[in-house]
Amino acid sequence: MEFKHETVLLHETVDMLNVKPDGIYVDATMGGAGHSKYLLDKLTTGHLYAFDQDQVAHDNAKIKLKKYIEQGSVTLIKDNFRNIKSALSDLGIEKIDGILYDLGVSSPQFDDVGRGFSYRNEAKLDMRMDQSSDLTAFEVVNKYQYSDLVRIFYRYGEEKYSKQIARKIESARKIEPIETTTQLSEVIKSALPQKELKKKGHPAKRIFQSIRIEVNDELGAAEDSIEQAIDLLNIDGRISVITFHSLEDRLTKNIFKEYSTVDVPRGLPFIPDELKPILELVNRKPILASPEELENNNRAHSAKLRVAQKLKEK
């Protein structure tokens, strides 16, 4: 499948890394390789390491980034970004000058009906970003206990009708397995009151999001990876993170806050180095897409970009 992908917050995400032409950079979520290509155009003797666990992304990147691969300025790494530190260490890289994240599922994965990410198209329940992993959406929907379904629907979907939906799923799968996205959507709809069905937006959106996050351990992987990225950064190196829903944004915001906040005694004329925080927020409020981008790229509507710079080692 060809990756047809409109990169979100392209210039903002890369430009705010203050890219050095001879620096070492990481694209932790290569996807359609839009950010990678733009960053590579800024390098001379520098190098980019681009991560993605999806083989389709790699197949397309080998075409899109062919010139840079031949130049030896980019290394493609097929791995989950939660393994970023060990994967780079294996290549002899212990420190980097900048890293970017475009969290969540890429547009091409959503657009590939067979991957089972979309609640609008019929497909087998899958939702794996890494097609070689064992856990699928089918396993979650048909094998998870009621209490576990409620937990992920509340935690990852913030769905107030989690219990009702979990009960409906439990009842439906006793009759026959729930095998497709459309079957699951109908079960979800049947659990909701009419007032909810009349609201704007698809009634299955939050449940599909929660199952996808569970299948791919998205939040756990993101937390692990961002923590490692902060360790990897050189002093003055920067990290850019694009998020697309409140859970991702809250996670990023809290990690950045933890590392950028210190208790300083009152009355100090200046902050000594030992009391300085590890990170400094580059932007206090998240950067949003411009009106022009919003007009041309619907996915950009929910995008938020947070950027931080490293001040000292942990």
Short structural description:
The chain is of the alpha/beta class.
Termini distance? 43 Å
The H/E string reads HEHEHHEHEHHHHHHHHEHEHE
What is the correct CATH architecture of the largest domain? 3-Layer(aba) Sandwich
- Domain count: the total is 2
Tell me about the largest β-sheet.
7 strands, mixed
| CATH topology category name of the largest domain | Rossmann fold
Alpha-beta classification: alpha/beta
Number of helices: 15
CATH class of the largest domain: Alpha Beta
Could you report the average pLDDT, rounded to the nearest whole number?
92
For the secondary structure, the number of strands is 7
**CATH homologous superfamily heading of the largest domain:** Vaccinia Virus protein VP39
Multimerization status: single chain
| Share in β-strands | 5-15%
What ranges have pLDDT less than 50 throughout 5 or more consecutive residues? Answer: none
- For the biggest β-sheet, the strand order reads 3-2-1-4-5-7-6
Tertiary shape: globular
C-alpha-based Rg, rounded: 21 Å
Helix fraction, binned, reads: 40-55%
EC number: 2.1.1.199
Family: Belongs to the methyltransferase superfamily. RsmH family.
Subcellular location: Cytoplasm
Keywords: Cytoplasm, Methyltransferase, rRNA processing, S-adenosyl-L-methionine, Transferase
Task: Characterize the structure shown.
The chain starts with 9 loop residues before the first helix and ends with a strand. The longest helix has 15 residues, at 218-232. The protein contains 15 helices and seven strands. It folds into two domains: 10-108 and 218-310, Vaccinia Virus protein VP39 (Rossmann fold), CATH 3.40.50.150; 113-216, Putative methyltransferase TM0872, insert domain (DNA polymerase, domain 1, Orthogonal Bundle), CATH 1.10.150.170. It has a seven-stranded mixed sheet with strand order 3-2-1-4-5-7-6, sandwiched between helices. Strand 1, helix 2 and strand 2 (47-51) form a beta-alpha-beta unit. It is of the alpha/beta class and 314 residues long. Specifically methylates the N4 position of cytidine in position 1402 (C1402) of 16S rRNA. One of its GO terms (biological process) is rRNA base methylation. InterPro entries: RsmH, SAM-dep_MeTrfase_MraW_recog, SAM-dependent_MTases_sf. Its EC number is 2.1.1.199.
